């Protein structure tokens, strides 16, 4: 039997509640950036599993070829030649079924910041004398600062701007080649390639273990943050959150040391001897030899062309 008061209805519209969302906390913003970064890392792993041009090559061939190309690019002085090589990296990214937008973003996200800080003084005539392109300040004759003689007109020179652009494109080309290597190669295969090229075992093993377990510890940190958030009624100040983070760092360090000892003992009990074992066996094929010879020959050609040993 349903009581009468449950059968009553209210003709008025339901009330409306406005929920005010505050700013993300210090911890929330930090963890959000971390998860965004590692999400892009997982996206990179997806690219390495695709059926593209570079994915079909032996990882050892790719590693040796990219290193040879990077060495050649660092020795190129001609801007147009650098632009040509950079365009080739975009072409190979497309042939490897890597999103050009994602590829360009990975390369140019940090280059303008770090490279710009380095080359910014070079564009001015105080550092690189030459033809004045953009005059900025007129000091007049015999102007000096701290005994350093200044030019009559301070500004940007054509030679300085050309040097800065050349340096930026060179860095972008080298970084693009390395990003191509990481996007087209599974991490375990890349570490195996490092070992095959003579990189000491301890360094390769350390990198491999860090890569494997960093995702797990990110999950642990996220669980700690969710547990804290579920027990928090009102938001705390930034200082209190930073204090909580400091305590969690110590706890995570202790947990890391304990887990590393357990993992190492488990690996040794299963026959681990320090070498990286992967399921897939890589064997050199004809296309790998052709790719290796082609890239090495192209790198030598670029160097000889840049130093006018060969003229085209």
Automatic annotation (TrEMBL):
<protein>
    <submittedName>
        <fullName>ABC-type cobalt import system, permease component</fullName>
    </submittedName>
</protein>
<dbReference type="InterPro" id="IPR051611">
    <property type="entry name" value="ECF_transporter_component"/>
</dbReference>
<dbReference type="Pfam" id="PF02361">
    <property type="entry name" value="CbiQ"/>
</dbReference>
<feature type="transmembrane region" description="Helical">
    <location>
        <begin position="132"/>
        <end position="150"/>
    </location>
</feature>
<keyword id="KW-1003">Cell membrane</keyword>
<feature type="transmembrane region" description="Helical">
    <location>
        <begin position="202"/>
        <end position="221"/>
    </location>
</feature>
<keyword id="KW-0812">Transmembrane</keyword>
<dbReference type="InterPro" id="IPR012809">
    <property type="entry name" value="ECF_CbiQ"/>
</dbReference>
<keyword id="KW-1133">Transmembrane helix</keyword>
<feature type="transmembrane region" description="Helical">
    <location>
        <begin position="66"/>
        <end position="95"/>
    </location>
</feature>
<feature type="transmembrane region" description="Helical">
    <location>
        <begin position="162"/>
        <end position="182"/>
    </location>
</feature>
<keyword id="KW-0472">Membrane</keyword>
<dbReference type="GO" id="GO:0006824">
    <property type="term" value="P:cobalt ion transport"/>
</dbReference>
<dbReference type="GO" id="GO:0043190">
    <property type="term" value="C:ATP-binding cassette (ABC) transporter complex"/>
</dbReference>
<dbReference type="InterPro" id="IPR003339">
    <property type="entry name" value="ABC/ECF_trnsptr_transmembrane"/>
</dbReference>
<feature type="transmembrane region" description="Helical">
    <location>
        <begin position="107"/>
        <end position="126"/>
    </location>
</feature>
<feature type="transmembrane region" description="Helical">
    <location>
        <begin position="289"/>
        <end position="310"/>
    </location>
</feature>
